[in-house]
Write a structure and sequence with these properties.
Blueprint lengths: L1 E5 L8 E4 L10 E10 L1 H7 L13 E2 L3 E8 L11 E4 L2 E2 L6 H4 L12 E3 L3 E2 L6 E4 L4 E3 L11 H18 L8 E5 L3 H12 L3 E6 L5 H8 L3 E4 L11 E4 L4 H10 L5 E4 L13 H10 L3 E4 L5 H13 L2 H5 L2 E5 L4 H5 L7 E5 L4
Parallel strand pairs: 8-9, 12-13, 12-15, 13-14, 15-16, 16-17, 18-19
Antiparallel strand pairs: 1-2, 1-4, 3-5, 3-10, 3-19, 5-6, 6-11, 7-8
Helix pairs in contact: 3-4, 3-8
Bound molecules: beta-D-glucopyranose.
C-alpha cells in the first residue's frame, strides 16, 4: 500500500510511497482510509521541526486526524464492516504515570506517551491502517467526510471541559466567550461554545472572507484587530493562535474570575507586553486562571462526536476548504490564504 511517510526532524524527506501493509499488532480492526486532515503540527513535521520515528525505525507514517471505513472488524462485535471510524491519537505511557493509569493520557506526567502520526507510532495517512477497538471512535454516518473534523473537535472538547471544571471553583455564570483565531480549532470552539448557550466572539486578522461569514452564520460576533481594543471583558478566552501578543493581551483583557485557556501552540514572537510581575499581579487581583490544554482522552472524543453529530452539516462542510489527492500531499501542506481545513482524501465516501 502507499503512505505519506517522512524521516522525523529531517526537512524535505516527506514522500508518498510504498510501505508494508499495517501489522496486526497495530490493532485488530482493519480500516480503509477515507481522509486525513492536515494541521499545523503536520506542517511542522514536514519542515523537520517536530516528530519521532517508531523505535528502531527511521521513518514515520504521518497523519493524526483520521477518518476511515472498517474493512474487517476482527473479533470485536462493537464495530462492523462499513462503519465510519476515527482513531484516537495518543496512547498511555508504559510506566504508567498515575494519569495514564486511569485513562487520562492527555494529562500524561512523564512525557513517555506516544501519538499516532506524531510520536513513535505510525499515523493514518496510509491507504489502510489498523486500530485497537478501544481506541476507535464510531462516527455518526450522516457526518460522512465531516467525521474527519473529530480530532480537532476532541481537542476543543477538552479545552472547554477544562474551563468548565475550573469555573466551578467559585460561583461562576459565564456569559461571554472570546475565541482568538478563526482556524479550524477556533471555529469549532465557537460552534461548541454556541451549543453551550454562550455569547460568542471570534477575533482574527482578516477583515472579510469565509471565516468571517462562518462566524456570522453561527450567530457569533466577528472582530478583526487586537484583543486590547475590545470593548468588553470576556468571561473566558479560548486562545487558539499561539501568538505572543494575542496571549499577552488576552491575559490582560479577561474579566475578573475569568479563565484564559491556551490551546494554540506557537513559538517565539514578541514578549508579553509589560513585565511578567504586572501580568501576574493583574491575574492575582482578579482571580484569573491561565490554563494550558493539549490533546484529549476518550471522554473528550466521545463528547466531541456528540457535539459534531448535533452540528449543522452545511456549516461544518464549509470548514473543509480543499480536498487533495494523496499524491499531491505537498500541495495540501502549502497554506492558501482562505484555507480553513485541508484534507487529504484517500477514497470516496
Ligand atoms: C494534536 C494533539 C497532540 C499535539 C502535540 C496536536 O496537533 O492535535 O493530539 O497531542 O499536537 O503533539
Amino acid at each position: 500500500m502507499k503512505a505519506i511517510i517522512l524521516e522525523p526532524l529531517k526537512p524535505g524527506t516527506a514522500d508518498y510511497k510504498d510501505v508494508p501493509e499495517p501489522e496486526i499488532s497495530d490493532g485488530s480492526i482493519l480500516v480503509e482510509a477515507v481522509a486525513a486532515g492536515v494541521c499545523g503540527t503536520d506542517v511542522e513535521m514536514v519542515e523537520g521541526k517536530y516528530g519521532w520515528a517508531p523505535p528502531g525505525k527511521s521513518h514515520l507514517i504521518l497523519g493524526h486526524e483520521s477518518l476511515g471505513r472498517v474493512i474487517d472488524p476482527g473479533l470485536t462485535n462493537r464495530f462492523k464492516k462499513g462503519d465510519l471510524v476515527v482513531g484516537i491519537v495518543r496512547r498511555p505511557d508504559p510506566v504508567p504515570c498515575p494519569n495514564c493509569a486511569v485513562g487520562e493520557w492527555d494529562m500524561c506526567r512523564n512525557g513517555l506517551y506516544t501519538e499516532r502520526g506524531i510520536k513513535q507510532i505510525d499515523g493514518f495517512m496510509s491507504e489502510r491502517w489498523r486500530i485497537e477497538p478501544e481506541y476507535a471512535i464510531k462516527v455518526d454516518p450522516s457526518l460522512g467526510l465531516l467525521g474527519v473534523l473529530l480530532e480537532p473537535s476532541s481537542v476543543v472538547a477538552k479545552a472547554l471541559e477544562q474551563v468548565g471544571l475550573i469555573g466551578r471553583r467559585s460561583f461562576w455564570e459565564p456569559k461571554t466567550a472570546l475565541i482568538t483565531g478563526a482556524g479550524p480549532v477556533g471555529l469549532l470552539a465557537a460552534l461548541f461554545a454556541k451549543l453551550f448557550g454562550l455569547e460568542v466572539h471570534v477575533l482574527d486578522r482578516l477583515k472579510s472572507g469565509p471565516k468571517v461569514d462562518l462566524v456570522r452564520d453561527l450567530g457569533a460576533t466577528y472582530h478583526s484587530g487586537s484583543v486590547k481594543d475590545l470593548d468588553f471583558e470576556p468571561d473566558t478566552i479560548i486562545e487558539c493562535t499561539g501568538v505572543g501578543q494575542v496571549i499577552g493581551e488576552s491575559i490582560r483583557k479577561i474579566a475578573s474570575n475569568g479563565i484564559v485557556c491556551l490551546a494554540g501552540i506557537g513559538h517565539g514572537g514578541s514578549t508579553v507586553s509589560g513585565a511578567i510581575a504586572d501580568v501576574a499581579s493583574s491575574a492575582v487581583l482578579r482571580n484569573n486562571v491561565i490554563v494550558g490544554s493539549v490533546n484529549a482522552n476518550k471522554r473528550h472524543w466521545y463528547r466531541a462526536a456528540q457535539y459534531l453529530a448535533r452540528a449543522d452539516r452545511a456549516w461544518l462542510s464549509k470548514l473543509i476548504t480543499r480536498k487533495v489527492k494523496p499524491e499531491n500531499f505537498k500541495d495540501a501542506l502549502n497554506r492558501h490564504e482562505d484555507d480553513i481545513k485541508v484534507v487529504i482524501q484517500f477514497s470516496e465516501i
